[in-house]
Task: structure prediction
Amino acid sequence: MAWVFKLRRNRLNLQKRLTAFTLTVVVLTSGSIGMFLIQLNFRNQLEQIREEFNSITETINGSRVDKVTVALALVSASQSDISLFLSEANSELIPLVSTSIDEAQLEAAEEIGNGKIPFESKDVISGKVRIEGELDLILTTSPSYLYEARRSEFLSFVLYLLIASSCALVLLRKVINKDVEQESQDLKLREKLKFEESRRKMLLEFASDTSHELRTPLTVIVGYLELLAKRKPEEIEHSAIVNMRKEALRLEKNIANLLTMMELEVIEDESLMPINLSNFLEQELVSFQDIEPNRSFTINVEKDIWIKGSEELLLKLLRNIFNNISRHSKFDSPVSVTLNKQSGWAEMSIEDGGPLSTSQSLEIETYLLRFSSSRSVSKGGSGLGFSIMKKSVDKLSGDLTLFHSELGGFGLKVRIPLENKITQ
Result:
């Protein structure tokens, strides 16, 4: 049934939304914390290098003994890779300690030796201590390895986050699917109970209507039989026989349509198969044109439109539509039939030339499960035609609407979901 497909679709959408939301929260939270810790560790290490470097520079500068000796001792004992140069005006730098000197440190040392103020960048931290006269000690160190380490940690963390997210996605799907499945079962049960309650109410209304409609012809027939039983054979009027036959036919049609309604109730969704609606409609139109030769037909049927259905449902739908046209429109009024594809739906419109009263309702609910004496007696119908049409369309997971046709009569539109099918 249509509500079952809708329920399944809603369950899948709910599962996807919950999984996406939970995974997004986990990734954003974990990512933010991880990035913050990496950055915090980087800053702490950089601050340690700065503090050690400044401490060494200040100690050398404040020493009252041989500053070169103190500088060599402190730089050699340092945990950081600090390079030490001796600089004299207009002379080349003399490296005293250069464990891991690079071009950036050498360039910085040369610039400081030429009188530039010591500076700090992401590549070099530098300092200068005056020894005596024009002799200076220049200290440099490069924290660039910290930036490289931070970049490597970021990449490793992102890779870890991707792997962890994939694992979390699998676990989340299992956990959320279990919860969603339980919620879906509860929702399905509630929907089923709601559907059963609606159907029970509908059947009660149906029973109320049908009991009167079946009792009426039986009462008429019994009345005529009691009247005839009191008369002699030669006194029996032919009109009484005709009236009894008319009421018997009316009763037979009502019972047949009631049985049709019951048959539609027990058709299972699993029995529906792909069927070519275009071919089926064209075949029924040929039969209807043979029966109604006085009508003019306008037919526009798109080829190879497949739906999920059955011949039984389509026969009940189309034949009730065409019978309705035969009974309730003039014998020579025009008929228009259109079938095409519209956004994933097979859309079928069938119109007649009426005449249709301006006060006549176009609400389908008006005609469902309600017997009308004007239709059942004078027109030869039971009043169940629209109910059978609506029930057939519901079984096909479609919808049925009425509209005022430009031809002057009823317009009936049926929409049924398309079924992907490769014709052979």
Notes: Residues 81 and 100 are 6 Å apart (CA to CA). The chain has nine helices and eleven strands. Residues 2-145 form one domain.
